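Mods, move this if it's the wrong board.
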Amino acid sequence: MRQKNEDRQLTKAEMEIMNVLWEKGEDMTTHEIIEEYPEPKPAYSTIATFLKILTNKGFIQSRKQEGGGKTFVFTPTISREAYTNRVMKEVKSTFFGNSLKSMLSFFARQEEVSEEELKEIVEMIKRK
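Not the wrong board. Structure tokens:
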């Protein structure tokens, strides 16, 4: 049974597959997904298993490829931006008491943001 992806998180391996699908921006077969991986390529069965998991979690959908016999193509059901937005909201809520100010100051300190970068960030926020 498929679960809604609103409550689900991606594992590192699942995220790798989603990144391939998001970067390509088109329906892909299992073999096409594997082709996008660096060497050593994962086994077909490994990718197929993760595609089934992602389908069950509701992150992708599949359909038979036209004229492709038993070949399926996979499409994300959520954009990278929508998933990132959801995860960042959860991070803000869980780790920073829902305070954007606390979250931004944490990253500014951890990443050792330069004065110039801070000015650029402030300008981007002002242009919003």
